[in-house]
Design goal:
Elements (H helix, E strand, L loop, with lengths): L9 E5 L4 H12 L5 E6 L5 H8 L3 E4 L5 H7 L5 E4 L9 H17 L4 E4 L5 H4 L8 H17 L4 E6 L1 E2 L10 E3 L2 E6 L9 E2 L1 H14 L7 E4 L6 H12 L3 E5 L2 H7 L5 H17 L21 H7 L7
Parallel strand pairs: 1-2, 1-4, 2-3, 4-5, 5-6, 6-11, 7-10, 9-12
Antiparallel strand pairs: 8-9
Length: 313
């Protein structure tokens, strides 16, 4: 639970009004342990930030590009949860620099545990076959920098699986003259790791904090791992629709992604290819951390029963 007792650990949550940060704040607030929570937002005067303030979260305005603002926000922190947003700018170098700036500020502040929303490197997992998945490789670079800065006893990388919410947007079923179709530029018998971002990601971060010695340095935050075909069938059953999953050509995929920059299209296409061929986390055991969660995370079937699918209406 969130309290104001000065003896409780102070957890600073970067991006507290965002999806991942918000999930972390929620999980910390629901924990049986006691925490003081300080949330960082670009604008702490916005409604989402004010709502967190009303719930007992100390909200602070800070831009992660402003080192002095970060230094001030991290003062007195015992634990920092940090997240960087590649999709806000589509620039791997910027994301790595943003991540390193957060690492350096946390180290300078004397933070005891730095938790980063990292991802594995698909360049590494694929042995150099897929080298354009910048939003994975950039976070992997930050992860390695943070590990070398803090050491394994003071660092955790909590790696979010593909968001189930993507099936309501980017990966959503589309209505065609042949019925509802989910199309991917990859073999559809490959498996995809999934997590309910808003509801369950924070559970894994809290597990990393409260079971620090028992959990690995890199923790897959994953609740389910169906094949692409199974995912389509599961969503179809939950929504009483018949959905067919097919492999699309590169051209079809790029047409479907519209005006997205080519670098981003290459990123997503190679991500899906690598996931299908090598798995989302490579050979890592994504079930391992489940024993330390405060509750069981939702499966895709459970999430899909109540999720909103605009393209199926």
């Amino acid at each position: 639970m969130t309290i104001v007792d000065s003896s409780a650990p102070l957890v600073v949550v970067v991006g507290a009004t965002g999806n991942q940060g918000g999930s972390v704040v929620k999980a910390l607030s629901e924990s049986s342990a006691q925490y003081r929570i300080r949330g960082l937002s670009r604008d702490a005067s916005k409604p989402a930030a004010k709502q967190l303030s009303e719930q007992g979260v100390e909200m602070v305005s800070a831009n992660i590009e402003d080192r002095s603002a970060i230094d001030e926000a991290f003062k007195g922190a015992d634990i920092v949860f940090a997240v960087t947003d590649f999709w806000a700018h589509l620039n791997k170098e910027k994301e790595v620099n943003d991540g390193k700036r957060l690492v350096d500020a946390a180290k300078a502040a004397g933070v005891d545990l730095f938790v980063y929303s990292g991802l594995p490197s698909f360049s590494k997992i694929s042995s150099g076959k897929y080298t354009h998945v910048d939003h994975f490789d950039g976070k992997a670079d930050v992860t390695q920098y943070a590990l070398s800065t803090f050491g394994k006893d003071h660092f955790k990388s909590v790696q979010a699986a593909s968001y189930m919410q993507n099936f309501s947007s980017l990966l959503a079923p589309r209505k065609t003259e042949h019925g509802y179709i989910m199309a991917y530029p990859a073999p559809v018998e490959g498996k995809i790791g999934l997590i309910d971002l808003n509801g369950d990601y924070g559970l894994f971060v809290v597990a990393a904090i409260e079971h620090r010695k028992e959990t690995d340095t890199e923790i897959p935050a994953c609740a389910d791992e169906p094949t692409f075909v199974e995912a389509g069938k599961t969503i179809g059953q939950a929504q009483s629709k018949e959905i067919m999953t097919v492999e699309a050509s590169r051209e079809q995929f790029e047409d479907a992604t519209g005006e997205m920059p080519q670098s981003a299209k290459d990123d997503l296409r190679e991500m899906l290819l690598s996931i299908s061929e090598f798995g989302y986390f490579g050979n890592a055991d994504w079930r391992k951390a489940h024993q330390y969660l405060s509750r069981k995370p939702k499966t895709l079937a459970e999430w899909a029963k109540t999720a909103d699918f605009p393209t199926l209406q």
